[in-house]
Amino acid sequence: MKIPWVATLVPSSFAITLLQVLQTNPELSTLYSYVNGSANATSFLANSNNFTFLAPNNEAISALVKSQGNATLTGDLILASIQYGMLKGGFPTLSFSNESQFVSTNLANPSFANVTGGQAVELTVDGEGNPRVVSGNKAAAAVGDELICTGGIVHIIDKFLSIPIQAVLQISAARMQYFVSILNTAGYLNVQNAEYVDGIMRVPDVTYFIPNSAAALGNATLQAANSTAAEMKAVFQYHVVPGVIGYSSTLKDGMRLKTQEGSSLTITIQDGDIYVNSAKVIASDYIVANGVIHVIDEYVSCL
Fold it and tell me: Which of 53, 74, 100, 200 is deepest in the core (most CB within 10 A)?
């Protein structure tokens, strides 16, 4: 009996595992050496299924190590980074588009993430249509070879993913200098306000709307001079939406978001721009440990 020619194209055993992909691909030899030295990382990868794995190439890891003064990467960081690179579900490069997707990963360790369902990465394309992955602090990695294995897809990326940091650290890292001045001018940095300011930074699943402009600073300064401490607390909380991680792709025209203060913000989409009440979003989707930050051009008030 003749064997159909199609069958000759299919190996008798398709079982090339994720670990074998890492072991046999020259671009991933450094990653494999780290994985091979970690029982936890090896076990995690060996038991993964229905995934897309973002695998940093040798140059990406070398650049990271160099940036840290050639220090050895710790076991905890290696495992967290691997979990952050392990997306839930299959995302071939043809599924990437200019409409960003914010995809959950397997990073749920509370030392690194404070979001329900695992920290996210952004899948998108650059101006020329090339697929890329955006992680913490807007770090962008280009996607190279696309490999398949038992359980899912492997994308080789040219940058090490940046695990999202706390919101307060992201504000500094992104140089949101006007907002820092607002915090100072409005008294939000005072010790007596630490309970609610710090508390908001620890709440899981949060959307922050951060005013960062000269106009916002001017309005905040004026309001601080004419408001009580309780009123300023309310205004601060009005910029925070708990219980919702509102990535830009999920914000819809007419949507109302209940804030920490208790009243709602209204989302408007006009000519492709996003507005929060009358404030325009001028920078979006800073993924942080407990949610997302959008930068707005006005200081919104509930008073």
Answer: 53
- The residue type at 58: N
Whether residue 147 is contained in a domain is answered as: yes
Burial string for 150-177 (b: 16+ CB within 10 Å, else e) reads: ebbbbbbbbbbbbbbbebeebbeebebe
User: Is residue 204 domain-resident?
Assistant: yes
For the beta sheet containing 256-258, the strands, ordered from the edge strand earlier in sequence to the opposite edge, are: 240-242, 206-211, 291-296, 279-288, 273-276, 264-270, 256-258
Please give the residue range of the domain that contains residue 191: 167-296
Residue 72, token pair as written in the block: 């050895």
Q: Does residue 2 register a pLDDT over 50?
A: no
Question: Do residues 129 and 190 both lie within one domain?
Answer: no
SS3 assignment, position 14: coil
Q: Classify residue 301: in a domain, yes or no.
A: no
128-144 average pLDDT score: 97
Three-state DSSP at 81 gives helix
Higher pLDDT, 131 or 73: 131
Dist. CA 267–CA 276, nearest whole Å: 5
**Could you read off the pLDDT of 143-173 as tens digits, one per residue?**
999 999 999 999 999 999 999 999 999 999 9
Final residue belonging to a domain, choices 157, 184, 200: 157
- Among 157, 182, 213, residue at a domain's last position: 157
Poorest-pLDDT segment among 130-134, 186-190, 250-254: 186-190
User: Do residues 19 and 90 both lie within one domain?
Assistant: yes
Whether 20 and 137 map to the same domain: the answer is yes
**pTM summary value:** 0.92
In this structure, what DSSP letter does residue 71 have? Answer: P
* Count of the separate structural domains present in the chain: 2
The confidence score (pLDDT) of residue 12 equals 45
State the pLDDT at residue 9.
43
